[in-house]
Write a structure and sequence with these properties.
By secondary structure, the chain is an all-beta fold. The chain has one domain. The protein contains no helices and five strands. Keywords: Isomerase. It holds the Pfam family MPI_cupin_dom.
Length: 59
């Protein structure tokens, strides 16, 4: 994934579990987690079985 707009992406895991990978570092994701990915991180991956919502500011 990449940033489409704005200085960050806000992500909320709303169901399930998964793994976030940033620069070869892995982070466990679980329902109820919320986190910010700053625009300085150019790309990341998320996998496994979960449902997430993400938003970015446009101004």
């Amino acid at each position: 994934m990449t940033h489409e707009h704005g200085p960050y992406t806000l992500v909320s895991i709303i169901n399930g579990n998964g793994i976030l990978t940033v620069d070869d570092q892995q982070y466990s994701l679980h329902k109820g987690n919320h986190f910010i990915i700053p625009a300085t991180i150019k790309s990341w991956t998320m996998n496994d079985e979960f449902l997430a919502i993400a938003s970015e500011p446009t101004d």
